[in-house]
Amino acid sequence: MLTDRQLHLLNVIVEDFVDSGTPIGSKKLIDEHHFNVSPATIRAEMKRLEDFGLIEKMHTSSGRIPSEAGYKFYVEALQEEFPYEPNFDINNSDALDFRRLAQLIARDTRHLSIATTSQIDMKSISQIHLTYLTPTKLVLIIVYENGNVEHQQISWQVRLTRLEIEKMNNFLNANLASINKSNLNQEGYPSIKQLPLSHIKSEIIKKAKTNTNTVFFEGREYLYEIMDSDNLDAIRETLKLIDSNTLPDLIESKQSNQIEVILGQEIKQNLQGISIVTTPIHMHNMNGNISIIGPTQMSYREIFNKLSNLHRMFKED
């Protein structure tokens, strides 16, 4: 656990290194940030941060730079400083709204931006048939408006009569409009409330539901501006990552309700010097993420600020 002074010192080292690109020494910290302690105390605190693995020494300089663990500690504090609201109040959204967000954030941050979307659709159902097999087993048959038919055998512990199954069948077909919108509610129907209707309803929706995934990349040209031109391996590996099919899955695996940062080896075992900052987006019937990819030495505070203002940017554009 860091003391307040150590945390402040780490934040200053990270932000100074991001701005200057040069290792940070104790003299620079004292001269530019006016710590009300002696130089010996600053050096001792830097030694503790180094022992914690949060900063590390460069071979060519007496200064220190943040380690991946140091960046991680730093961005966790930013998550508290920049609370995020993932829900966008936009009706009839589509994948192009996500692309527009990616274009906005790429242009505003001059970083490569990625929009990943998952649209949930329901295949339109025209008829449902429940066919009695035994008191604890039936066959569910779904007929779609395009003529396709799916069927599935369903079992449960409760014993049902043919009349009870007929009641469920009638209820489901009388409420096809609600089923097609995934919002069927059986409240107010006491005659079937005790029946395993919820289980059957979930099986119907599971079969009828489809996901359409889309990925947009915006601002590829900025990648060469923000990456260290001497680090060709990092640029090459980043381009490989972009062209692979693994990036959307990686981003989705880190999804939460706040801004997240994926650093270096968290992205790929042999990939260092790269970070992904990602944030969830929820629009009407679509979910997704807007992500920024760039060097580990990026201005996380600026990126967090931009992402936390996506709602305003979207409305003003």
From TrEMBL:
Residues 99-303 form the Heat-inducible transcription repressor HrcA C-terminal domain. InterPro entries: GAF-like_dom_sf, HrcA, HrcA_C, WH-like_DNA-bd_sf, WH_DNA-bd_sf, WHTH_transcript_rep_HrcA_IDD. Transmembrane segments: none annotated. Keywords: Repressor, Stress response, Transcription, Transcription regulation. The keyword Transcription applies. GO terms for molecular function: DNA binding. SUPFAM superfamilies: GAF domain-like, Winged helix' DNA-binding domain. Belongs to the HrcA family. Negative regulator of class I heat shock genes (grpE-dnaK-dnaJ and groELS operons). Prevents heat-shock induction of these operons. This is Heat-inducible transcription repressor HrcA. It comes from Macrococcoides canis.
